Amino acid sequence: MITRLRAAALGAVAIALVGNAATASDLKPEEQIQTRQAGYKFMSWNMGKITAHLEGDYNQAQVEAAANAIAGIANSGMGALYGPGTDEDIGDVKTRVKPELFTNQQEVGEVAMAFIEAANNMAETAALGDKAEVKTAFGELGESCKACHKKFRKD
Amino acid sequence: MITRLRAAALGAVAIALVGNAATASDLKPEEQIQTRQAGYKFMSWNMGKITAHLEGDYNQAQVEAAANAIAGIANSGMGALYGPGTDEDIGDVKTRVKPELFTNQQEVGEVAMAFIEAANNMAETAALGDKAEVKTAFGELGESCKACHKKFRKD
Fold it and tell me: What are the counts of helices (DSSP H) followed by strands (DSSP E) for chain B?
């Protein structure tokens, strides 16, 4: 999985940046917002589980499963969920995305790549099972989340 | 990844059935409902992408990424998101789960295992890249989704 995740990272970022014609066109803007938020919510749950394991009883299989869920979502081409019309609230569907995400492609690419690499590194590290190394990889993953939030998410 | 996914399946089902003490306790019932729905929504998006690829231009990297996202979510121990109090609507948080899911543990275990195995088989097959085989594995995955919906989800 390690080499495959590494190899997938570049492809995933390419998808993230260019979007996915086959799918962006299928979802309405409000559905794109809801689907990307679903991805973040599910990743957040798995981040919380890993935190609990690092702070309490460490179960490698569960940490590995959580890390794989995060990596799977991170590599799924979420850039396609930031299509036209998804830059602001649509009725009851609210978004905290900043306009900069739609205009600063280079910086978006950098934070997206950093996030995907951190997620893949976390999955690889979790599979090896060393708790101290997992803690480091998890910290780096959290930082990559925060870097994007800081630049492209409203408080 | 193939052997790891196979090995993970049993562990994941064990988590699914017994729940995850470290996490179930962290989320309120309404958050558990929202988080499990987020997982299903994100899987559904990825199922839709795979359908589009099978019906149109087939891009292996994107199908593989979508299949990995589904498998990652499927193996993440979603059983922990069916805790006490999540069997009915909570205010604006609606759920279509049937009461039987909380009482028929054996059948839940069977459909959960079948789903996880189908998701893992799909990920493994997508990695090999044969479109015809992917189509078969994807059909089986869809059937495993429907089997659970039919038994444990209201229309």
Answer: 6, 0
